Every structure is written in structure tokens, then in C-alpha cells.
Amino acid sequence: MITTAPADFRAALPAGGRLIGLDVGTKTIGTALCDAGWSFASPAELVRRTKFSKDKAALQALITAQQVKGLVIGLPLNLDGTDSPRTQSTRAFARNMDDLGMPILLWDERWSTVAVERTLIEQDFSRARRAEMIDNMAAAHILQAAIDALVNC
Questions:
Q1: 2-151: what CATH class?
Q2: Can you name the residues that pair with 71 across neighbouring β-strands?
Q3: By Cβ atoms counted within 10 A, which residue in 5, 6, 30, 37 is the most buried?
Q4: pTM > 0.70: yes or no
Q5: What per-residue confidence (pLDDT) applies to 9?
Q6: Is the Cβ–Cβ distance between 73 and 145 less than 8 Å?
Q7: What whole-number distance in Å separates Cα of residue 73 and Cα of residue 109?
Q8: 52-76: per-residue pLDDT in tens?
């Protein structure tokens, strides 16, 4: 099941469980995990993109090891809310992940990378260090926004 509705996603996970957040880029996939009670999200591993089958295997290994019950994938909409080529690519990525047999929530990720970068700049991280951290931090930002919405729906 792939949805953009938090209530539908929550209904598919009546017992809760750990979630994984993904910030899908062209070169990397940032990941983040949350606790089973959906309280907080933390950055996890960075997956360097190669072939989709290898990317999926790496994600599946993380999902299995962390006993993940659902996926939250950042959806890069245009600022006016319309789809872009990256949005279409992310939707295709989600469809290809659907055979994992767990619910997938597509979450509006507009401004997530900008918000994370501002935070890292405020904390005086170098450009090189920000580049290392930004994708996983963006995934955590996306996942935290989603679990905040899930708790309130």
C-alpha cells in the first residue's frame, strides 16, 4: 500500500512499530529510523546509489535488522505542490519498494533539506561535514514530521 494520507498509513499499522524514513536522491539515499512508539527520529545509514537492485538490497537489510514495519519516503514536490521529474522518480522508487510488503507513506519534503542545512550552518559545521550529514539529517527531518502527524491523527 502506497499512500499520501497519514490516517491511512496509521490504519495499516495498528500496532505501531519502527519506521524508516528515506530521502531519495540521485546519488545517495539518506535514511532515518524512529522508535516503535513514534516519538523521535534519528539519522541512520547513508546508502550510496548504484544499481536499484543493490540499493534495494541494502535498504532491505537495514529494514530487516531494525525490524521496520513501515516506510516514509520524502516526496519532492515543486513549491506550488505540483509534481516534478524528481517527484515522478520518487513515486517510481516507492512502487518498486512496494513488494517489501509494508505500508509506504509519501511525505511532502519541501524545505526539509533547506531546514537541515540552516541548522547545520547555525551549528558551524564545515561544508564538507554538512555534505556528509545532510541526506540522513533530511531523512530524519522528513520522518519526524511524519511521525508527529501520525501521532495526532
A1: alpha beta
A2: 20, 104
A3: 30
A4: yes
A5: 93
A6: no
A7: 9
A8: 999 999 999 999 999 999 999 999 9
